[in-house]
Amino acid sequence: MSSTEKTRAHPPRHARRGRGPIAKRWIYWKRRYSNPVLRDWALLGCLLGILIAAACTIIDFRLGAIVMAVVPAGLATMRAMPPPWDEVWTNRSKSVDIGTGLFFALVLVALAFIVPESR
Q: Cβ distance 38 to 87 under 8 Å?
């Protein structure tokens, strides 16, 4: 061995114990969310709809309720579309999903006009 070569007493850290828990979690999240699936976009759309409805509630209670009713109605509409748009849900009845979404949209709109507005 020449004098210019380094000798190591121990192998490098990654060779001894593998990756740390933070590095493993980072790799998992990077792989998982690098290509969002349709389910992720549907969830993001629901969250944005809820935030917009909350902002509209500041303007008018009924407007906020109507905008909030668009979220389940939009999900029902998305479920009624042909593949691949309806593949957000698995192992459930398509007609029950559509009916439930439209039912809750109608309930929200009905509540918006039944509940008296306080001034």
A: yes
Is residue 83 a contact partner of residue 105, using CB atoms and an 8 Å limit? no
pTM over 0.70: no
Alpha carbons 50 and 105: distance in angstroms, whole number: 13
Residue 112: closest CA among 71, 51, 65: 65
Per-residue confidence (pLDDT) for residue 13, from 0 to 100: 59
Burial (CB < 10 A; 0-12, 13-18, 19+), residue 52, is: middle
Tokens of 77: 């509409």
pLDDT classification of 15: cutoffs 50, 70, 90: low
Looking at 34-93, list the stretches that DSSP marks H as alpha helix, in order from N- to C-terminal side.
Answer: 38-59, 61-80
Q: Which run of H or E residues covers position 92?
A: none
